[in-house]
């Protein structure tokens, strides 16, 4: 739970205009900072409409932030104060009658607890990453924000000093001039970020070896 001295910094994800407007109105009754942006910012609490692989959801998960249901805002506003987060966290209860896997449902809670207990700064803190994408790729900035939220080190493909652990490519596009410092590195598609955060058996997922 956020300490009494820490003001909650709130972001929302997945809500349509009407529902979002109603939640924002409730937020103004509570002591918090609301960040109304489509991009992930360094929030303390993300309120999510549903489990998803949006930029905000992935980034908050990778950073070990609280990811909560909308009832957290509704019930806190009714009480006139912020309530304890525990029972409102995505992953607190695992539903059986849903197409979401138990691993995906529990991911926000698992990562928050793992990062809190281990004192690791983020889910990707041991990663040294190169992003190989075409110029102007619209997803580049979003992927970069998710990686930065998880404290990955993002390296230039020209930097041969880096011991690269992950190379991300878009639709098998990779400029061949960058192969020197990437020899032996594993290549992954962008969706691997979601797989890594949400799937339990991640250590068994192999990247593509490029020699």
UniProtKB/TrEMBL annotation:
GO terms for biological process: DNA repair; positive regulation of double-strand break repair; protein localization to site of double-strand break. It is found in: Cytoplasm, Cytoskeleton, Microtubule organizing center, Centrosome; Nucleus. The keyword Iron does not apply. SUPFAM superfamilies: BRCT domain (SSF52113). It comes from the Eukaryota. GO terms for cellular component: centrosome; nucleus; site of double-strand break. Residues 121-211 form the TopBP1/SLF1 BRCT domain. Residues 10-88 form the BRCT domain. Transmembrane segments: none annotated. Keywords: Cytoplasm, Cytoskeleton, DNA damage, DNA repair, Nucleus, Repeat. This is SLF1 protein. It comes from Aramus guarauna.
């Amino acid at each position: 739970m956020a300490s009494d001295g820490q003001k909650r910094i709130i972001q929302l994800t997945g809500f349509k205009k009407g529902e979002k407007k109603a939640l924002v109105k409730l937020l103004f009754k509570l002591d918090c900072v609301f960040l109304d942006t489509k991009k992930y910012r360094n929030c303390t609490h993300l309120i999510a409409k549903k489990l998803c692989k949006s930029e905000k959801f992935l980034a908050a998960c990778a950073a070990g932030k609280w990811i909560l249901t909308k009832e957290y805002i509704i019930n806190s506003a009714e009480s006139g104060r912020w309530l304890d987060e525990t029972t409102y966290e995505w992953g607190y209860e695992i539903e059986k009658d849903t197409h979401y896997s138990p691993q995906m449902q529990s991911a926000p809670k698992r990562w928050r607890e793992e990062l809190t207990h281990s004192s690791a700064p983020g889910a990707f803190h041991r990663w040294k990453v190169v992003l190989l994408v075409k110029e102007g790729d619209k997803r580049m900035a979003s992927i970069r924000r998710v990686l930065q939220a998880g404290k990955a080190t993002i390296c230039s493909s020209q930097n041969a000093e880096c011991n690269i652990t992950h190379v991300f490519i878009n639709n098998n596009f990779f400029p061949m001039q960058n192969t020197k410092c990437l020899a032996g590195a594993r290549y992954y598609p962008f969706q691997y970020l979601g797989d890594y955060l949400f799937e339990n058996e991640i250590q068994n997922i192999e990247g593509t070896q490029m020699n």
